[in-house]
């Protein structure tokens, strides 16, 4: 027998032994049904392949149809329980820091940054989450941020003409922002140390927190907030325009609403809080865009102890993926769930939807601290974009979902100002 054949036989024997060992190890536990796939690799390749396409649903659909709303798999090097069951997702979210801890695959952690709020744990996370929310609540937005959001959006739109890569226009350069933040942190630290005065903003709060953060940690934390906000908000803006472009009736109704708002104010006047609160159909569009887009498709958690739930055991150390996307696109929860239909949110129907069924901003202790601001930014953008421009897609584009949700070509469109005659939308 050749050495190569011997090596091949040995590898096959080891693989078979590992499979048998794994089956014996988990036989005593009542795991959710499913398949752990191949040793080491598991079902990672199938997952990545599905999410790199414009239709990732078959990966979940096949397993949900075969095993039910909770199933076992093996992805990114670890056994993982996938949940598309709203009540189990709520349980996972609510027990952060008790039965579960935040745990993302290395590839995702690297994208987020080591000081990202999403990766913080324990008391540090509680403190930083509370601090972040205190600077993005509704009264801060109403009294301070709305005017700046409106001004910055108008300033950005003023430079748009002809062909625009919509997703690209909504993003900022990470390196330049990091350099600028570093200078600001250094100057503010020097100033506060010399005269004892601190500005009452997030940077001032971080410097005064008593945590002795280094400049690098402060910059990384604030940059993670900025990048997270820009990345997710720019994507949701792009997809809102894409979905509206593909749904002319919804776009027409939205135009009517915003033209009415514009007609009540002077040309060039900034938006007021009362204008935002009158955007009734806009909120339907925002809700539906968030439901369909699923920018945050779900969350990874690690069990810190053996957990018995729904008659199954999740072993200590196993990952759990609570899938928001699978719930949002389940026809048992939303009629014609995979169609963009903002009218489903009319007549206060949102109030009748269980809180654990619609979770675009997560929930529990890790509820997105910028959820109110995100809704305002998207609403203001839609108002200004729709009242200033008409547009047509420059070329066909499609959604991809790995490693994050985005359009493959950054959604190129041809824009024209509405006062110009054109056949655009």
Structural classification: alpha+beta
- Poorly predicted spans: 172-178
Main sheet summary: 5 strands, mixed
Strand order of the largest sheet: 1-2-8-5-3
Subcellular location: Membrane
Binding site for heme: 368
Protein name: Cytochrome P450 90A1 isoform X12
InterPro entries: Cyt_P450, Cyt_P450_CS, Cyt_P450_E_grp-I, Cyt_P450_sf
How would you characterize the overall build of this protein?
It is a single-pass membrane protein. InterPro entries: Cyt_P450, Cyt_P450_CS, Cyt_P450_E_grp-I, Cyt_P450_sf. This protein has 425 residues and is α+β, with helices and mostly antiparallel strands. It is 50% helix and 12% strand. It contains 16 helices and twelve strands. It has a five-stranded mixed beta sheet. Strands 4-12-9 form a three-stranded antiparallel beta sheet. A two-stranded antiparallel ribbon has the order 6-7. A hairpin with a 2-residue loop joins strand 1 and strand 2 (78-83).
What labels would you give this structure?
transmembrane helix, 12 strands, globular, transmembrane, alpha+beta, five-stranded mixed beta sheet, 425 residues, 16 helices, heme, 12% strand, Cyt_P450_CS, metal-binding, three-stranded antiparallel beta sheet
What is shown here, in short?
The protein is α+β, with helices and mostly antiparallel strands. It is built from 16 helices and 12 strands.
SSE arrangement:
Elements: H1 3-27, H2 44-51, H3 57-67, E1 70-75, E2 78-83, H4 86-94, E3 100-102, H5 106-112, H6 122-134, H7 138-157, E4 162-165, H8 166-169, H9 174-195, H10 202-207, H11 215-245, H12 248-263, H13 273-277, H14 280-293, E5 298-303, E6 307-309, E7 312-314, E8 319-323, H15 324-328, H16 371-388, E9 389-393, E10 399-400, E11 406-407, E12 412-417
Parallel strand pairs: 2-8
Antiparallel strand pairs: 1-2, 3-5, 4-12, 5-8, 6-7, 9-12, 10-11
């Amino acid at each position: 027998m050749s050495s190569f054949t011997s090596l091949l036989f040995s590898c096959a024997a080891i693989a078979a032994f590992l499979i048998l060992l794994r089956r014996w190890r988990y036989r005593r536990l009542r795991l959710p049904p499913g398949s752990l796939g191949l040793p080491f690799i598991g079902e990672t390749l199938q997952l990545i392949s599905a999410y790199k396409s414009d239709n990732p649903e078959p990966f979940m659909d096949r397993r949900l149809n075969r095993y039910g709303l909770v199933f076992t798999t093996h992805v990114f090097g670890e056994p993982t329980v996938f949940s598309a069951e709203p009540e189990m997702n709520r349980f996972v979210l609510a027990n952060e820091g008790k039965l579960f801890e935040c745990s993302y695959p290395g590839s995702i952690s690297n994208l987020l940054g080591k000081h990202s709020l999403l990766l913080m744990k324990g008391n540090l996370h509680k403190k930083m989450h509370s601090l972040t929310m205190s600077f993005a609540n509704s009264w801060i937005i109403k009294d301070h941020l709305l005017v700046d959001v409106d001004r910055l959006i108008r300033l950005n739109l003023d430079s748009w003409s002809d062909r625009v890569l919509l997703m690209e226009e909504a993003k900022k350069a990470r390196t330049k922002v990091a350099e600028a933040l570093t200078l600001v942190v250094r100057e503010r630290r020097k100033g506060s140390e010399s005269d004892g005065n601190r500005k009452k903003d997030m940077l001032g709060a971080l410097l005064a927190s008593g945590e002795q953060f280094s400049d690098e940690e402060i910059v990384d934390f604030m940059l993670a907030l900025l990048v997270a906000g820009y990345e997710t908000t720019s994507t949701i803006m792009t997809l809102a325009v894409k979905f509206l472009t593909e749904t002319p009736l919804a776009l027409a109704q939205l135009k009517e609403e915003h033209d009415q708002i514009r007609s009540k104010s002077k040309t060039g006047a900034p938006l007021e809080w009362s204008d935002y609160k009158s955007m009734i159909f806009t909120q339907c569009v925002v809700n539906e865009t968030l439901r369909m887009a699923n920018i945050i498709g779900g969350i990874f958690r690690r069990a810190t102890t053996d957990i018995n739930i729904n008659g199954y055991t999740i072993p200590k150390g196993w990952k759990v993926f609570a899938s928001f996307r699978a719930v949002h696109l389940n026809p048992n929860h939303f009629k014609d769930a995979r169609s963009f239909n903002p009218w489903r949110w009319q007549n206060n129907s949102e109030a009748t939807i269980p809180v654990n069924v619609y979770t675009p901003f997560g929930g529990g202790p890790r509820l997105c601290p910028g959820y109110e601001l995100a809704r305002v930014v998207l609403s203001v953008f839609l108002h200004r974009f729709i009242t200033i421009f008409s547009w047509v897609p420059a070329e066909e584009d499609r959604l991809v979902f790995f490693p994050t949700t985005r359009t493959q070509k950054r959604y190129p469109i041809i824009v024209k100002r509405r006062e110009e005659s054109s056949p655009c939308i």
